[in-house]
Design brief:
Elements lengths: L1 E3 H5 L8 H15 L1 H4 E3 L5 E9 L17 E10 L7 E4 L1 H4 L6 E7 L2 E7 L5 E3 L3
Antiparallel strand pairs: 1-4, 2-5, 3-4, 5-8, 6-7
């Protein structure tokens, strides 16, 4: 996932004040709680295998420290499902967790095809292609 930092915490620049640093730390901590963000069908018996959250202001590689006009927080969440054929929906908790988010756009690719979704409040579930 790519999430605009502004939609998570209300600013895009690197945190400058203690309140901004705390807001950013809180947002990153919530993103690491993948069970609150993505909920596969219980019948699919999925378990999280990976949750990786990349802070856009954390130094990485040659471009570290470069000023940016726009910051995205990147999140990668992986699941392994014992009954993947039973996976029919994904519950999406992002809109409730981050009230500043206006919509969630997702592209889902399955053996049955690829489909683009847009969720807006109060919707919180993606129905997977069958």
């Amino acid at each position: 996932m790519q999430l605009p930092q502004e939609s998570l915490v209300g600013f895009e620049h690197a945190p400058r004040t203690s309140a901004q640093r705390q807001a950013m730390a809180d947002a990153l901590a919530r993103l690491r709680q993948s069970g609150d963000l993505i909920q596969p069908d219980a019948e699919a018996r999925c378990r999280p295998t990976k949750t990786e959250v990349k802070d856009p202001h954390e130094p990485r590689g040659a471009s570290a420290g470069a000023a940016a006009d726009h910051a995205d927080v990147e999140v990668e969440i992986g699941f392994r499902c014992a009954q993947a054929a039973q996976l029919r929906t994904l519950g999406i908790g992002l809109l409730e967790t981050f009230p500043r988010l206006k919509r969630v756009q997702a592209v889902v690719a399955t053996p049955q095809g690829q489909r683009k979704f847009t969720l807006r409040r109060p919707a919180r579930e993606l129905k997977l292609p069958r």
